[in-house]
Recover the amino acids of this structure.
């Protein structure tokens, strides 16, 4: 199920850096490069152990660094005190809505935000190189769940 092309690019990167192409690195690479969402190192660890693969956190962190350096994975900081990682999917610049209750991350695109930033910067003689926008809040599921009274345990 791993995309053979990105997998091969990660292998090629490891070889270029004279790093051993270990099965652990490839397993972590496959997981990250095909992840639909934004995984933390802990998520990677628990998904690997669900598959019966035991990989130490130190190895996971080192491999995540390698994936970021290879340009195949992008590091995100949602202000949670740890980093999350997502595959670089040639997406246009996108933004994140992060739920402070369940930790879910929703992506959205809106060209109007790009335009507003360009306009605001240009009006001040500023040439923007990059920007980030992160919205913290409560997702639809968590807002829906909130009013439900807790079940009494007798
Ligand atoms: Zn939520
Ligand atoms: Zn994203």
């Amino acid at each position: 199920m791993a995309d053979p092309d990105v997998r091969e690019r990660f292998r090629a990167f490891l070889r270029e850096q004279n790093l051993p192409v270990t099965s652990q690195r490839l397993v972590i690479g496959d997981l990250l490069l095909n992840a639909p969402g934004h995984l933390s190192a802990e998520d990677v660890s628990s998904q690997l152990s669900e598959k019966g693969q035991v990989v130490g956190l130190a190895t996971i962190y080192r491999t995540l660094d390698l994936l970021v350096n290879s340009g195949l994975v992008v590091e995100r900081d949602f202000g949670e005190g740890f980093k999350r990682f997502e595959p670089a999917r040639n997406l246009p610049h996108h933004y994140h809505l992060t739920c402070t209750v369940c930790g879910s991350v929703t992506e959205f695109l809106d060209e109007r935000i790009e335009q507003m930033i360009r306009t605001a910067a240009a009006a001040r003689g500023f040439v923007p190189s990059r920007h980030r926008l992160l919205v913290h809040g409560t997702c639809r599921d968590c807002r829906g769940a909130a009013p439900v009274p807790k079940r009494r345990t007798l």
